[in-house]
Amino acid sequence: MAGCSPDFILDFSASISPLGPPQSVLQAIQAALANLRHYPDPGYTSFCQAIAQHHGLSPQQVLPGNGAAELLTWACRDLAKLGAVGLPVPAFGDYYRALQGFDGVVVPQGIQADGAWLGNEAFLDRLVHRRRSLQLAGLLLNNPHNPTGRLFSKSSLLPLLDQFDLVVVDEAFMDFLPANQQESLVGQVSSHPNLVVLRSLTKFYSLPGLRLGYAVGSPERLERWRRWRDPWPVNSLAVSAAVAALADTAFQQHTWDWLAATRPALYTGLQSIAQLDPLPGVANFFLVCCDRPVPLLQAALLKHHRILIRDCLSFPELGDRYFRIAVKTEAENQQLLAALAVEMAGQ
Ligand SMILES: Cc1ncc(COP(=O)(O)O)c(C=O)c1O
Prior knowledge:
15 strands; alpha/beta; seven-stranded mixed sheet; Aspartate Aminotransferase, domain 1; 2 domains
């Protein structure tokens, strides 16, 4: 549709940091090439130690995965066998794949009511009220939430841990918040064996092709998952990349500085286009409501500007008036805003 190679398209559709992969990670991968003739350490000792140290946990509370998506599969196997699972919607499509793969009973819990977005408190109140009537045993939460970008506070989530048999929190985008602003439940896994937290390294460090994530939970649960899955699900290049990534505090700070500078400007720019209504968000993407069908806008942006935005048709609750865009570099964000202004003015 754009009439050019994909390399010439400015891709706002994938919520991946534009800053990476970090040089430290590329160097670590390069150095690890020599180890390809060996199988990875089956216990993933260096990976588990690095993650455990990062979060102040024991290595037994950490399980590396071939992306958060692989660990989601095992989390959903546990969730599915408990009974009905509450799923805040709109939700990342892979949750359905993983839950339905184990015949899980998914009970969607709308973050919207009568077409309006609920506040966090109102949504969680409704969830707690409905838990009993709907006999929800498990809960699969995403924090910060994709696609809305909203953040649930740790204090608002803690009571849920006493109400559900199992709570799985996907924190794939949590790293984008500076450490003192994160609302992670990772610190609660020692006191709550019914909690699992999933984290991804692919978005923050721009490594989606490498596949890299981890779960934090009770040692007994993670050991069970270990017995279920393939041997060596994480390759040795990914292990070396993870250890280097976690140690690269300069890259982490650079990312937080970039996002603090670019995200507010992009949000204000979107707000200034009359036909658009962006939702405020804490992560590296925005969900935007639009006054016209997004597939038309998407096609026009691609054809006239070689810019790709993400329609939200895979989130059935959102219909065709929403799109999602990643935050990219200042110059790229300005390019998107200029293109949006042109296309909106054109009709
Ligand atoms: C909310 C959410 N969780 C998990 C993932 C998967 O992450 P990974 O690349 O680590 O498998 C994605 C990818 O888009 C996502 O949006």
